[in-house]
């Protein structure tokens, strides 16, 4: 009898929406069989998963690796190392780097960098600002296109912003021709500027608290989302709305889906795990842009959207900055760097929500793995644990708890916005295409092992 490369034995495997006692057989980087305990099959390596669960690796559609141009914060290698220990096996990177990824030349140069460094599989969103470049970028394998409606201080690069509705319509039309998705950071820039001016005129300090109060104003977000949904109806583009955290925005998304529009939505955990009250506790290490007021209606709508399918996926918005850059928020928040590192404990944050009954394990896998894979057109090659799928998986102890600190983080910036948070559910092993790339919070993957994921028109 031929020996398989690997057998993961004794664990409960996520299969058909539930956990089943199965062993996983792996050969050639693929899952080739799921066996009941006791079924015969020899393997060169047997991994003991007794008492643990085996889940699909996360497919993260919202990463900022900061390379090229800002590698003092992060790079492809360090981001992918943090991803590996956090249970992420595929990441799609954003274009707001230096130079921005807005031409075929800059896109191909960025691909070369990732190809030599990333230890997990990867793809790139590129800028959707230039309709003439869009067909060339699509043909070259871009995953899709990213546009910011927000424009201001880095990381909201004005060169990547489209807050003119006519230009946004032209971009959507060009992207629709490719069959690839258009991701948009929604924002009513004009309203934000007027509300900021009112705050300054009232004598409010330009610190993180004032900024958060203005930035998270509901109307700034759902007026922008309304515009995007109307332009989607006009152009037929595959519209994917990021940072969908306002109650009004989520109601608009739900209504658009009920009308049959090609609209999807994503949210990153900082919007429902951290509030302005947390920012007070974490002053000096957390960016205000991702924090919302502890408004009961808003939070209720967010959690319900995660459960009922209005929210299609959880992304990370892994967006590292140094603590020195973040500290500017205390005196000049309008010019402070926005974003925070998320990768090192990304799966554990979601598994904590499962343990607390916020949503089911099935829904967590849908939000983190299955839905992103389908969105990218790579399911069930990725995002599933089935014969023929890539052996991209994690072994997790669902009962294990851990208090988050800065110790042992793989992200280059070296800090977490969840300082002091207790998580339940710890990733103990991460496997990519049958190779163990992280175990017991130690990185085992090698630079360049990650493969490029090309965009799939749908």
UniProtKB/TrEMBL annotation:
This is Unannotated protein. SUPFAM superfamilies: Composite domain of metallo-dependent hydrolases, Metallo-dependent hydrolases. One of its GO terms (molecular function) is allantoinase activity. Residues 53-436 form the Amidohydrolase-related domain. One of its GO terms (biological process) is purine nucleobase catabolic process. GO terms for cellular component: cytoplasm. It holds the Pfam family Amidohydro_1.
